[in-house]
DNA sequence: GCTCATCGATTACACATGTAAACATGATGT
DNA sequence: ACATCATGTTTACATGTGTAATCGATGAGC
């Protein structure tokens, strides 16, 4: 699958695409301390993995995601959930609850969510 | 940190410890197709990482976890949550909800959980 | 005491990953 | 047309990981 460093590049493209390597570097170079070559390498690996595509734009390429963020998020979350929580969501939430890591906002949103589920499935 | 293959060994020890390498192999060997040497290597890496300890028992060693499962679970979950959901729990649950991956049991438990939170914080 | 079976420790090796330098090539200014 | 610059491609290299074979020590049976 796609690695953590690669995912950083993907996040940039998911926010907005197509983008040139230079633009990607500009956006990510600050947070990560990456050189140009690093971003180029990552882009090439992503191309090889068919996670992004590149279209020529004059001298350079513009990159766009092929792998949808939704899919990546789902794969990652499901894998974690399966490995650590027997594939079930409630135990995960319970875990964060025990760690007091639920914000008031989380709680409000969860409540909201559950209500909506009620409405949907009468 | 501790890798996925290593975590498989840890799970065995978290279920019950101390255990000999042989016992660990017996328990994981079926599911994973691991040879003896593989388990030994993983145990050694875990020792080096201070994730387990070993106490002599005659000719062999008995291994026990040093890293608590709670800690491992928390690190892994938090890292995923931060990277993919802005560090917040509700969006993760929403994600699974959209994917229709909330079981009835999940929903019931979440509801329960929220009620308990109400009681706790008056 | 010598030999063999058992364990753990060491070493191996291919592939992934993070990080980047070196190289190639085509566009550009002069 | 030529040198230079900007871009992408190839190669590099250390470290981590999955998977194991081999080496070495140590206790057990003869």
Largest sheet of chain A: 3 strands, antiparallel
* Spatial arrangement of strands, main beta sheet of chain A: 1-3-2
The percent of residues in helical segments of chain A reads: 55-70%
Q: What Rg of chain A is obtained from the alpha carbons, in whole angstroms?
A: 19 Å
Poorly predicted tracts of residues of chain A:
none
Number of strands of chain A: 3
- What is the H-and-E element order of chain A? HEHHEEHHH
Terminal Cα span of chain A:
39 Å
Kindly report the greatest chain-chain contact and the residue count on each side: A-B, 34 and 34 residues
Structural class computed from helices and strand pairing of chain A:
mainly alpha
- Oligomeric status of the shown chains? homodimer
Principal-axes shape call of chain A: elongated
Helix tally of chain A equals 6
Summarize model confidence as the mean pLDDT of chain A. 94
Strand content of the residues of chain A, in percent?
5-15%
Descriptive overview:
2 copies of one chain form a homodimer. Chain A has 6 helices and 3 strands; from the N terminus they run αβααββααα. Chain A has helices spanning 4-15, 21-29, 36-48, 69-85, 89-98, 104-120; strands spanning 19-20, 52-57, 60-65. In chain A, 64% of the residues lie in helices and 11% in strands. The model of chain A has no long low-confidence stretch (mean pLDDT 94). Chain A is elongated, with a radius of gyration of 19 Å. In chain A, helix 2 (21-29) packs across helix 3. A 3-stranded antiparallel beta sheet of chain A has the order 1-3-2. Chain A is mainly α. Chain A binds chain B through residues 4, 7, 73-74, 76-78, 80-81, 83-84, 88-97, 99, 101-103, 105-107, 109-111, 113-114, 117, and chain B through 4, 7, 73-74, 76-78, 80-81, 83-84, 88-97, 99, 101-103, 105-107, 109-111, 113-114, 117. Chain A binds a DNA duplex (30 and 30 nucleotides) through residues 3-6, 20-22, 34-38, 40-45, 54, 58-61.
């Amino acid at each position: 699958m796609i690695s953590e460093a690669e995912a950083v590049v993907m996040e940039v493209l998911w926010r907005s695409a197509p983008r040139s390597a230079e633009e990607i570097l500009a956006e990510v170079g600050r947070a990560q301390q990456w050189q140009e070559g690093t971003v180029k390498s990552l882009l090439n690996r992503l191309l090889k993995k068919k996670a992004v595509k590149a279209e020529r734009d004059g001298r350079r390429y513009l990159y766009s995601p092929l792998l949808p963020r939704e899919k990546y998020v789902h794969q990652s979350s499901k894998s974690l959930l399966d490995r650590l929580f027997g594939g079930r969501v409630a135990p995960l939430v319970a875990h964060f609850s025990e760690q007091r890591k639920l914000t008031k906002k989380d709680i409000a949103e969860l409540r909201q969510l559950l209500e909506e589920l009620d409405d949907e499935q009468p």
